[in-house]
Amino acid sequence: MTPMDDAAPIETQSAPLAQAELDALTDRLIEQLKTVFDPEIPVDIYELGLIYKVDVSDDKDVVIDMTLTAPGCPVAGEMPGWVEDAVREIAEVRSCKVELVFEPPWDPSRMSDEAKLQLNMF
Length: 122
Hints:
single chain
């Protein structure tokens, strides 16, 4: 047995993403999130304010916390998959995981002005 046999395995870490690269990836993520619509409301989930958090690791693994307009939403089981599929279309993304969260509860104040305009809520 050599002294190296007792050593902890060497972990390789990716270099941190450059800010410009992260900004460009963020723009692409938003673009893709805007392709997913709540079937009951003619506005995309990003503008509705259903996306609570997007984390991007240095390895370009994406984790998204999102909610629904109502906990009993009929597409609750399907919508996270739609979001994952949309994000995975970005070539640079290595993986995507979407978590449904219900705290804080969604309410219309989370919608963008664009969404409110589309729904005639002004």
